[in-house]
Amino acid sequence: MEELNRALFLWINATPTSPDWLISLATFFARDLIAIVPLLVVAMWLWGPERQVGSQRKLVIKTGIALAYAMTISWCVGNLFPHARPFVVGLGHQFLPHAPDDSYPSDHGTAIFTFALAFLFWHRRWSGAILISIGLAIAWSRIYLGVHWPMDMIGGLLVGALSCLFAQVAWHFCGRRLLQNISTLYRIVFAFPIRKGWVRN
Prior knowledge:
Layout: H1 2-12, H2 20-32, H3 36-46, H4 53-80, H5 107-122, H6 125-144, H7 150-189, H8 191-196
Helix pairs in contact: 2-6, 3-4, 4-5, 4-7, 5-6, 5-7
Pfam families: PAP2
Transmembrane segments: 21-47, 59-84, 104-122, 129-147, 153-174
EC number: 3.6.1.27
């Protein structure tokens, strides 16, 4: 498995002869594309058709639970089974500055794939498919730039799937109460913009 991991990495990883524009595009994907997660979460909570805001906020809470599970699992796995990054072991070429910490599973991969799977399972197939595509772009870019192994991204996908399962179970125990409490707090904190009609009640 490790040999396959290394072979796939070397096949994807950029080289000094790779086009500058492709390295720049990969850098944008690797650094900035993950911002879609908080932006979309905030937008779905604050705005949307009145009849859909309730279901959108339910999705936000379930996704938040899944992300909390995912990042906790990722941290635990990374500490229990440390795995050096490609540039740490001197393999391939690195084009993105990164701390030489543990690589498995990828935090970026874990976050975006958890988010994408949450939308695939609980929102719409088309929105999930778009986010999966964004996740694949992020996964490719971080391998291409030499800071992750392919298996780091597969690990993130598996952690995301497991975390969505945990979140679905957790929702039955505390989800509705959590949604109610957060909604109450939101209406207190955002009372002024709600009155002005800038955001949904």
